[in-house]
Amino acid sequence: MKFKVKVLPLRSEKLSVLMNPMDAEDLGLKPGDRVRVLIGKESFVAEVDLAEIVKEGEAGVCSHTAKVCDLREDCLVEIYPISRPNSVEFIRKKLDGARYSRHEIRSIVHDISRNVLNDLEISAFILANEIIGLNEEELQWMIEAMVESGERITFAKGIVADVHSVGGLPSNRFSLIAVPTIASAGLLIPKTASRAITSASGTADTMEVLADVNLSVDEIKEITEKVGGVIAWAKRIAPADDKIIRV
């Protein structure tokens, strides 16, 4: 079905579509169901919410969804229901004590990066990994899937280094000292950082006071090759990681 987009003055970090209850009934949708939203040749997966403030034939989106998915007021989109992904069942099996296969953990990570899993399901994934744990194979597969889910940077020459603090310590800004120190030694250090998790400000938030951290992969590469190092938000390089951290 086709709908006209209405950008609403609402704040939400999740990709969601607000629908009139009558339209949702016609499509057999309930709150929390998933839909695929098509705009031209592009599409994204969103979670359904219902509200009568949205008229029939309209699809309400918050400003975050509009910005991320490049939706404009009154543009036309097509909305189709989609079934629950297999990765939800893989997470359920893990909670029952089973081990992931390589295919299963790859499916989960890729569904997280593509916004197919909602916050509750991502929380279940985190809980399953905490309670049951990951063996060495599962951990390796998860890291590989994280890498596959994002964009990559390749440097033609030089030694590429990385560093990571223990994290979660208030006022700990280890990376802001370590990155320029390592770069001054002649190594390349394209350091990705996260926003706040357990403290009021993450490394990316602190660095943003001094410089832009919302950089493209090309910008990260260019700056690193020019001055030896950079601190950037990891959203594009590790999208699944960013979504897990947010939850």
TrEMBL record:
InterPro entries xref list: Asp_de-COase-like_dom_sf, Glycosyl_Trfase_fam3, Glycosyl_Trfase_fam3_N_dom, Glycosyl_Trfase_fam3_N_dom_sf, Nuc_phospho_transferase, Pyrmidine_PPase_CS, Thymidine/pyrmidine_PPase
Molecular-function GO terms, alphabetical: 1,4-alpha-oligoglucan phosphorylase activity; pentosyltransferase activity
Oxidoreductase keyword on record: no
Keywords annotated in UniProt: Glycosyltransferase, Transferase
Residues of the Glycosyl transferase family domain: 159-245
Domain Glycosyl transferase family 3 N-terminal: 89-150
Segments traversing the membrane: none
Gene3D superfamilies attached to this UniProt entry: 2.40.40.20, Nucleoside phosphorylase/phosphoribosyltransferase catalytic domain (3.40.1030.10), Transferase, Pyrimidine Nucleoside Phosphorylase, Chain C (1.20.970.10)
GO BP annotation list: AMP catabolic process; pyrimidine nucleobase metabolic process
A family per Pfam: Glycos_transf_3
Top-level taxon in the UniProt lineage: Archaea
Tagged with keyword Methyltransferase: no
GO cellular component assignments: cytosol
PANTHER family from the UniProt entry: THYMIDINE PHOSPHORYLASE
Protein name in UniProt: Thymidine phosphorylase
Native organism taxonomy: Archaea, Methanobacteriati, Methanobacteriota, Archaeoglobi, Archaeoglobales
